[in-house]
Amino acid sequence: MTTTFESQRTALADVVAIPVTPFAEDGRVDQDAHRALLRRLLDGGVTTLTPNGNTGEFYTLTPEERRLVTELTVDEVGDRAAILVGVGHDVPSAVASARHARELGAQMVMVHQPVHPYVSQSGWVDYHRAIAEAVPELGVVPYIRNAQLTGARLAELGAACPNVIGVKYAVPDAARFAAFARDAGRDRFVWVAGLAEPYAPSYFSAGATGFTSGLVNVAPSVSLNMIEALRAGDYPAAMKVWEQIRRFEELRAANGSANNVTVVKEALASLGLCRRDVRPPSRELPESERAEVAGIAAGWSL
After folding, report:
1. How far apart are CA 273 and CA 262, in angstroms?
2. Residue 160: which of 186, 196, 122 has the closest Cα?
3. What is the pTM of this model?
4. 275 exposed, middle or buried (CB, 10 Å; 0-12, 13-18, 19+)?
C-alpha cells in the first residue's frame, strides 16, 4: 500500500511552530516549563510543531537532550498536533534521530541543512536520500538555506524518495524561491516559507502555503492572524500583521540574526513563561535592550 502523506502535507500548509527549549537555573532542559509552553501553543490554536528546530537551539543540545525534547513533545502533544522533528548532523546521527521520532509516533522529520564547509549538490541529494530511505513511513522535509542549490536537485531527490513531501525554504530571496519551486515541481512539494512571518507574504505570492514561526511562542494569535489573511489572499491584512511584528523581527534579525532565539526567550521571560537563558554561541540581551522587547510582547493581544 502506497503512503500518500496527505495529512502530513496538510499539516505543513500552516503555521509551523518552532518551540523554544527552556533551560532551568542549573542549565538543564526545564521539562515543566517546556510542557507548559507546548500547552500554550496548542491552546492557542497551533497544530504543527517542530521540536529541535533552530529556535529550539538544536545545535546546542546534546544527543540525549534532543531525544528528551522529542519525547516531551510527543507525550505532551498527543493527537492535538502534527509533529515535525528536527534531525541533522552526520548521517548516522540524523537517521538514529529520525528512527527515534518514528518509534515515538511522530509523523515527519525536518532535516537541518548539512553543516559542512564543502557541500556539493549531488552530495546534498545523497545526504537527504540516506535519511529519507531510512524512514520511508515518515514525511521528510529538507531545510534549505543554500542559495546555490538548484530546484533540479530537489526534483531528483523527490523522484527517488516519495516521502520527501515538503520543503522549508529559507533563502532570503523571493524571486529565487519562485524559480526554485517551479524548477523542483511546485505541486510536488508543500512549500513552507522558512524565514517566518517577515517573508511569508512574498513567499506566499510565489507558491508557499505555510510558514515557520518562532514568534508564535510569544503570541500565537498574531501568527494565526497572518496565515488566515494569506489563505484568504488578503495581502493588505497580512501586511498589517507584518507591520505589527516588524520591530520584533528586526531585533531578531540584527547582526546576522545573532539574537534570533534570544529575543524570543526575552519576550517569554518578560511574560513570566520561562527563563531568558540561552546557550553559547547565543547570548542573553543586555539590560539596556530588554525593556523594548518586553514592551512589544506586552502590546500584543495574547
Report:
1. 14
2. 122
3. 0.95
4. middle
